[in-house]
Structure formats: structure tokens, C-alpha cells
Amino acid sequence: MADAVVLERPRLGRLHLRVREPLDTAVGSLLLAAIRDGLAGGATEVVLDLRAVVDHDPAGHGALQAAQALIAAAGARSAHLVARPRLRGLVLRVCHELQDPGARPVACEAMADAWLAHADPRAAIDLSFAQAEQLLARVREGQA
Amino acid sequence: MSVRPALGLGQRLALRGLHAASRLLAGYAAPLVDEVVRRHGLRGATARLRQLQAIVDAIEARIGERDAHLVIGWASLWNGCRFCALGHVHAANLAHFRDTGELFPLDEDDLARRLHTDSDAQLLAHLRAALGERHPATLARLERLYQLKAGHVPHPALVPDAPPTHDRDDDVLALAITTYDWLNPYSLAADEGPPELIALSPLQRDRDLRRRHAAARAAARV
User: Model's pTM, two decimal places?
Assistant: First the structure.
């Protein structure tokens, strides 16, 4: 359990945590504490690697929501690395519940870097809608 | 902690009318509409949902009814959205069954289980095993969808600052991904448990087709 939440590669301004156990009450508490410490230490970006998490329970949902609320309240941006639909759904749901504009699930570290470096202040969800509208025009052009 | 605006009386009444009209015209009502109204108001929600329908129509015009629903279904499946994933895969399965008289090899019940338990890699392996032999073009399309979704193939609509692309087929897939990256948070927030299987297409109204498809699927499972 001590290794359930691991601090990865220290980097200026970025907190990078890897969660290695199912997300439940105990792991959620560890995650919350690590995020609180990292934000207190001046992190403005959070990468949360959930790729090894295979399951979560309602307490895990609550813990992730509490952790994300801390990140949003600190004005930090975040990228959640996920490798299974159920976890991606949990992250999307939590970000939607909190209306956190600075968070999005990603599949790889390159996408996390790209998202965190992106200067557009719009939320991931609004960006997606704007991108869809632009793509619709291109797809219609292709049909013409 | 959660920020969830309440629906006003006028919004609730309008939603009741919208859902009734949707049941009549499409054969189903989607609870996610309430969540879109909650966030954007009636006018904003109506504009967005109209745009959503235009997008689905455009994808269908480009790649055909069955593959459009498969692409949309899998774009939603990667996001963990059971309602949209199963609803669109079911619509694809019904279209294939109507056109060929055969079952498409993606069983809705099996996918529902896998959505709960499988990793991306396991789902891709399942997709290859199910479609590889008989539907290689559709498999290639769904594999490309995942490559774009995961950023293995950077598309500028999905990976900030990625170089421009001139691949129109990738644009169609990226359109499905961006659209359902936008919609799925609403449907995930509105999903309150295992739903009745609904085909998210006009085929939901074809009771005879749905009955024959369900009987064939049940027979194949024995």
C-alpha cells in the first residue's frame, strides 16, 4: 500500500504521480495527500498516471473528485493518463461534475505534454466542440 | 463539491415535450439531453444538439450507415460511455442485419461486459479477433480511430500544435472523436445504471427488425 501512489520524475512546476493500486478509500487518501503536498510545493501542472489502475469503487470516485477539486481550486492544469475506458469515463465524469476547464484524460505522455503546454484557455470540452464544428465544415467540403 | 445547476420549471416542461417528441419520432428519449440543457440552457442545448445531428449525418454520408455508427460507438466506447457506445454499436448491428440478414460480430452484451473490465489493448485485441477475417476494411477504420484518439497518429484537432493533415478520412474519424469527447461527459453524467438497449438511430422504431435481430443474437449465444 505504501507504494500505491508514487511520485515520478520531479520537474519544476509539475507534479507527476503514478497510481498503482485500485482506486478506493485508502489509495484515494494517499492520492489526496500527495496532491495537497505537491500543490503546496508550488506545482502548477499535475500529471496523474492512472494507467495501472484496473478498478475503482464509489469511494475512489469521491477521492478523485476531491483531488481534482484541489487541483482546480489551485488554478493548476492537469492531464490524466488512462488506458482503459472505465477509467477514462470516470475522469471525464469528474471533470464534468467539477466543470474544471483545465483537465483532460490523455492516452500517452506526449499528449499530456501537448495539453499542458497548450495556451488556449478554453476547457477541453469546449475545445472539442469547436474542433468538431471546424472539422464538420472540412468534411462537408470533402463531400462537395 | 459537484457543480450541477438545477433545471428551471420552464426547462423541465420543455424537456418533457422534447422527450415525448423524440420518443415519437426517433423511438427513444436520451437522458443526456437534460444534462446538456442544464449546462447550456434550452437555446444553447438546441443549437448544440442540432449540430450533433448534422455531424452524425455528415459522417454517415461519408462512410455509410453501419460504419458511421460503429465509428461513433467506438469513439464513445473509448470514453467509457455505455449509453452511447452500446446504442451506436447496436444501431450498426441492426443496419448490418437488415442489409445482409447476418449478425455483425460485435455482441452488445459482450461489449457491455468488456467496457467494464477491459483495457484499451484488450479491447483492440477483441476487435481484431472479431472483425479481422470478415470485415478487414472496417477493422482498419476502427484501428485508425484508436490511433488518432490515443495520439499515436497526431491530428491537429486532437493533439494541440500537431501539424496539419490533408487526409479526409482522418478528418471524418477526428470529427467523431472530437464530437463524442464533447458529448460523452454529458451522457456519462446522465447515466444512472444499466439501461435498456436502445439503438441510437431511426432503426429503434423498427420493432420487427429489432425482434428478429434479438432472436438471432440469442440463438447465436447458445
Answer: 0.93
Which residues of chain A lie closer than 8 angstroms to B120, CB-CB?
Answer: 83-85, 107
CATH architecture for the domain at A5-119 = 2-Layer Sandwich (3.30)
Strand ranges (E), chain A: 5-7, 14-19, 45-49, 77-81, 103-106
Residues 6+ apart with CB under 8 A from A19: A4, A5, A6, A27, A31, A48, A49, A50, A52, A53
**Cα–Cα distance, A38 to A32 (Å, whole number):** 10
**Subunit contact B188:A108, Cβ cutoff 8 A:** no
Tens-digit pLDDT profile for residues B32-56: 899 999 989 999 999 999 999 999 9
pLDDT in tens, B14-30: 899 989 988 888 888 88
Query: Do the chains contact at B182 and A117, CB–CB below 8 Å?
Result: no
Q: Tell me the ipTM for this assembly.
A: 0.91
Return the domain boundaries, chain A: 5-119
Residue B66 CA to residue B95 CA, distance in Å, equals 6
What size, in residues, is chain B?
Answer: 222
